[in-house]
Design a protein that fits this description.
Six copies of one chain form a homohexamer. The first copy, chain A, has 13 helices and ten strands. Chain A has 335 residues and is an alpha/beta fold. Helix content of chain A is 41%, strand content 14%. In chain A, helix 11 packs parallel to helix 12. Chains in contact: A-B, A-C, A-D, A-E, A-F, B-C, B-D, B-E, B-F, C-D, C-E, C-F, D-E, D-F, E-F.
């Protein structure tokens, strides 16, 4: 296979970067999609310390790993979110949280996401994967009644906060790949359509295709690839398993923790869930996607050291390259 | 059929109570489940004005209608909700909203829901239908990461706010029938289990079975009746139609307004959706439910004057009484 | 519609024959499929009393009803059954039960089923509907291990007991229409194939198509009509509803009584269940079935006086005659 | 309902026009979609005889019927078809067939379809419904191997033959509504996309939405309405029922005649099949379709006099108008 | 994996115990669930011969195998069964069969099952797996009509016969794990509920979870684990494949032998069927099941030497242990 | 496994025969199903050149490969086809095409298919696999209206052209195995029934079971094996994957090329599709099929060198032999 298979380091940020490099290389990954948290890739240091990036590059090279994208989901989440609360405090850098005043947090998060483009360019990668946050996600139940003006305002808020950020991305020659995900401005098919309209389809903003969030919403991740084929900037392979056959486990999963068998769905090791992986990889071939295929490993019921090692083999076996010629040439007598 | 079929007046509160009585009677309803908003049933006046209740009774009797339950969803929503915002302001009485300080709104809402029991008793009905609100609904996506302590605190908050209210209900001989619904403390099967545990299954708190919110979550509304058979205090017949066959319309419905064909599901006139009505009514027979069957009519794609008239006939034809004797008696020679 | 719609009187045998005639006529039935139990049609009296049959005919005519078939399921059940026990005693005539010695019961039952052909001929009808019983039904779980020899012996026992009976049918110009049903020698598709082989497809033995027993076995009742089209001698319209969506209600229904919502399936009023009625009636047209369409009404959750009246209208609306000419004649310019 | 319900007269052309008018009016139709075959509407006479159109109008008015579209499927079929053979001879006017030389037939058919626009304008209607034919339909199995050049040539042939026709439509202010149908240039979703591209989306060419041909191809007729909402120029309500549950009846239906129960699908009376009619009508409301809803009645297993009378009631009950206001206004305290 | 994977020896009793040990060890099993038939484990000898048990233990140890449970399905079957016939004679020890008088057989079977607890204790295992038999299984079709009193008597018969047996189990510190199975007193979900009620949930009686019998009844084996989580005493991994897609192969499988493709379902090698194994093993983790996972291998279409070797690898790959910590720790900045 | 696994060389005819032998042997195939095109097996040379066949045999033996069948689909296609056009010219030998006059092509194709039997006999194999062509396939849409006489004539044409060919087959002791396939006289279940009737079930004509063409027609390939079990003369394992979940990709696949993700189905590497392989191989065991299992590899989205190597292992793992004895022998005490 010609496309690199990378490991997203976000769920491994409790381990030192070097240890993650060692593990990923030992399992056969070609590179990393490096998270901008833990000590994996620190945006402020990357811009402030002259040899920080060279140091990261050196560690990667020592393990024979490449990098084609970095990710900053956690800070991105704070750009548009409302409310801003302890959940954000616990996952963003102290320098972004500051005094915790919501609007201040949002502004500092926007600055940091712009800086992430600068750091990406410095690292030599052209893609930043992440989240946008959303001022209107909390109204998803549409009760108490929500006016269309409120929804419109939510998309406008997104455009107002992200257009200046995307100007920096354009300047740096970097693109932002938003992961369609609950809690974000674009979380399903039609909200993705609306989100792209809100920023007038500017090319700086595209999508990180992660099918795991589509499966439990009954969206078709394969058709999504085709319909948004000019905006697929990155691919994250996370898997989801539905288990709703008893009429008691529902889609909303009862605020139960990951791994609880009463949840209607759960994230599982890549290849153990309901994502139609082979159809997806074939469609990635069909739309000419040639960038990394990254594994985002998340499974509350399986040891990650076992699972991440298994997943790279699973993906490699299915994400094969297309053939060069059509099969029915053999039927022709024109030889 | 021996059980009364009533019309829930909540979606008709823009019309005067008397006009709703006239319409419901003309369509063949046996009575009303009266909403405590608009001018339909005003709790404060019911407790303050000596002849208010007699006046309501008189109007009902004039139209040949009965009443077995009143409903106060909108104020109930404010008891536990967080955030409290303009959505609440627009739907609760000014006297409950007051200065809009969130905790003050919650306390006044709790007082008003307690008063609703007093007013119900005065009206001679033993059931109040409604919502609870929820401090943790907004965390339904479970991202940014939510701790189990936060979820536990949400159920505790519910118990702390509702136990004093339910003391009043016990005192008045009235029961509260919570409608399992997104945005509430109990919104699916396992959250209902947890909610009942939080208040130690005290009999004052039961359920208003409304299957429309279960359908799009892939919950089984029929099994729900059986499993919670000792807590089914009221029945609201609202219907939901799923339309997700294209892989683009998802469960979360993209913040699209009611009636938009891109939504993955929508409320439709009772009998036009996916609720297994006959199985449900047969199970209500099996569990011995003998209270009203109320129609909550809501359909953004159909004229309500047409739909509500049709719905009462639909329900009456299926909600038949069980037979008195077993069918296989006829096989016996013991005659 | 040119085919008569009849009511099977088996589930009404606790009522006097004349009362059943009165009811059926008032609901619009064209005739009866008369059960040979209760006082509806007594085989021994029909053969012994010179004017018994004229009396029955007179009652029918008085109510404007016809008869094209009689049914003797209950005695038929005893012909091959093993064990013979109190269940049989309670449902067959005392003269057939006698001292209850199993082999004696079986022999007297065989004689009575032969007599039923004689009585049918006397009444002027050419079809007797019924059951066969089975020596091997009790081994349906195939554990403890059952040898193929035992199964073979079961079919042989059927042939040995029924061939002499069928000789009488041939002699009388009457045919027996077996109802494929659990507890019988033929209870599904392949056991029907085997049963017809066991008696070498002699024309005296055919089938009473009753789809209700096929639905819960996941058999296709429409394809059954086509495949056995030369042996469809009678049609009984009984309906079945599956309700297994919760993973707890199973196919075998836990020995629960009819009407219990925990059963995985139940008999319901014709038109309320899962039988594909319109496809079935269209296929009856396609195979040229021109005999009666009889309604066997059985529903433990509905009053039979309500249900049987409704069912005749349901069937009449769908069991329409085929058109005389092909629809695409209108496209031709050959006029 | 504000939109007229019309009867398509194509399947009734063996009856005189006046008789069809009498029948349609007696069943409650508002008007006709008149076929240009039989004596219903003769294009050549309409252009040649000064009072032909007035005569048609007079008959319609006498029966209280309107007309908003005429249809010329049969001649349209011959415009692009290859081969041209006896099937065409049997269904097109002798003047179009001429000597039967294929290319001559195609050219005369093209002229007649252009004339149909002229006749429509003369009649005062702005829509012609019909077929296009196709040079490549016969290659649908893609074996023996078919080159992409051959397929490209098929679409080009369509454009070459139809663009001059559509020039006449533009001139006359009439639009052609192509019925997506096997045997035509556009027969499914992606071939419709390609067809519209081939003529560069010129507005003169739109679609007659007939869901019956989509059902057995597993296409979603509701989503089709949304995606092609600016090209839905006419609606034909024909219904299809799938019956493939036995693994023997297949999609291609074995060259079996209409009405044979071994076919995997068949056309059935509107409302008796698998088209999601209510979802379709609601989506027609959502896209603002305000033109006629026409019933194309075709069912080889049902008498057409019975079926067409029933169908108009079925459609009228579901094709209701949308409401004027949003349902949740009643929740607001803003009164 | 920390739980042992064992092989149930019941289907291997035609081979000498030592040979089965050799095979199981060579395939990588951790131990055996030893059947009390063939020469595998003879209850009477275990109690009568002083060194019998030491001899069994020695053989196991020599092959590096453990034992945590013994099984006595065949004798257990005779405790409640009615009728008792040749099928029992062929599968139980001659000393239990005796003269074959049914009630005598039942009593001796009961004694032997009590002795099995004594022998288990002597062997040092605390679990006996097996069947109960049933006086009412034969009435599963509920025709001829069966009274509720008869069903009640069946459960009472079970309690009467098993309570004294279970007293011995309590005394010995051993528990009986009943396998929910057709032909037994508990054969589906609700009959299991009723069975546990009949013996008042005494802890001596629990369940051997074998999903193969649930699959063809459309029961959810995963939900079964959760609902009866305090009674799951043992696990047998047998698999079942449904093949009913043609409308001719039914649930009851036509008395056809195992392996016949016309059966609606069949037992297949573990991992080749429809049991949701991974969901099941994850739920076993979630309920804290830490006892053996035993493979009951049965497949009439596959060589057992091939299949049993393959099955242990299949189960080992999916029955992984749960992780120690939650996956989302990595998102926190609390480091 | 005792049956040989062969590779069908048809899709490899652009490679020299010897190279295909080398590849197949290196991947572990037991032999080849040799195509009569490319240089693989030339019928005319086999009959004309004395040592041609010995030469082919020598090459096979050198690579350790066997041969049990040869295939001549492409010439067979021309025997009945209408129209005959460039698609045929491009795939049949120039000597069969000749001047391209359709009837001449058909006659020469018939002669060549007869010669293929002679060549097969010379090679020492008793089976020729192939296609028949069809005069009526082009009417599959049944519009413009097709008369039953036309369909009847199509089957008669097939019989007229093939009976003389089959006489040669009988004479040579060779059988023709027709592959049920779109474009052929038999393309689904009922057209196969009709085709076999047309030639009066003469044994010289049987079937090459290739399930890939059944999957997208919703036919059951497993039941097909059982129903036509006496006519299964050869097996080709080609696989098909459906992908129609989005309501836009239809069964007829829009004339899109193989590998396009908008097609409703596509051929994929054996084991990557929707064919129920294990059920199929088990049924082949049940019907006693002992001839080759051939892999027809075709996948426009995968490199054939990767896929064909993988497929042989996939098939070998599932096409296991049946066991010699019944599993439940172990339950018996008769030892």
């Amino acid at each position: 296979m010609t496309r690199p298979i990378t490991l997203f380091t976000g769920q491994w940020a409790d381990l030192p970067f070097e240890e993650v490099c060692r593990l990923a290389a030992s399992w056969g990954y070609d590179g990393l999609e490096i998270a901008c948290w833990g000590d994996h890739f620190e945006v402020d240091r990357a811009l402030a310390e002259p040899d920080y990036i060279a140091g990261r590059r050196e560690i990667l090279e020592r393990h024979g790993l490449g990098v084609w994208a970095i990710s900053n989901h956690l800070v991105g989440q704070a750009v548009c979110d409302d409310p801003i609360d302890d959940r954000h405090r616990d996952m963003i850098p102290a320098s972004v949280w500051g005094d915790g005043d919501p609007e201040g947090v949002r502004k500092r998060a926007a600055d940091r996401i712009a800086d992430t483009a600068r750091a990406a360019a410095a690292l030599g990668v052209d893609t930043v994967v992440g989240f946008t946050g959303s001022a209107i996600w909390k109204y998803v139940a549409m009760f108490p009644p929500v006016s269309e003006a409120t929804i419109d305002a939510g998309y406008a808020d997104f455009a107002d906060r992200w257009n200046p950020i995307l100007d920096v991305y354009d300047e740096m020659g970097v693109r932002f790949a938003h992961e369609v995900h609950p809690s974000e401005i674009a979380y399903d098919y039609w909200s993705t359509v609306r989100t792209l309209e809100a920023i007038e389809h500017r090319p700086a903003f595209g999508l990180n295709w992660d099918p795991s969030h589509m499966i439990w919403q009954d969206l078709d991740p394969v058709g999504f690839l085709w319909d948004f084929r000019d905006r697929i900037y990155h691919v994250d392979c996370k898997d989801t398993r539905r288990r709703m056959s008893n009429g008691r486990n529902g889609r909303l999963s009862s605020h139960l923790p990951w791994g609880d068998p009463r949840r209607g769905w759960d994230f599982v090791s890549t290849g153990h869930g309901d994502v139609p992986w082979e159809d997806s990889f074939r469609t990635l071939n069909a739309i000419g996607y040639t960038r990394p295929i990254s594994i985002e490993w998340e499974d509350a019921g399986m040891d990650r050291l076992v699972g991440a090692a298994e997943a790279v083999g699973f993906v490699r076996s299915l994400a094969f390259d297309p053939p060069a010629t059509a099969f029915d040439a053999a039927f022709s007598t024109d030889r």
